[in-house]
Amino acid sequence: MQIRISTRHGTVGDETQSKITAKVEKLPRLFERLTDIEVMIDLERRDEPIVELKVSAEHRHDFVARYQSADLLGSVDQVMHKVEQQLRKYKQRVQDHHRSSGIKSPEISGDLGPVTS
Known about the structure:
This protein is α+β, with helices and mostly antiparallel strands. The chain is built from two helices and four strands.
């Protein structure tokens, strides 16, 4: 799994980047098939930075969340929460699909009872 942190219109300190990395490294605990995590921080408005989190999973599934607030790490927490919800919902849907596909309908035997003509 690859984690990338990028910024627009400025830079983020190493300490902040390591905190963000530590937070997003927890995502594979929810869904182990993640292939790529990208955190984009837009500092165009420094008083309210925008944080966007894009998580890619196997089979071309992407989960995206975006949040803007005055607190950068608070925004990271919010996008993490949004993506966690998306991952839980997707995982539940996959599990339900596999459970329902394992149930087969009873086969109808050739003997349907007495036939009257």
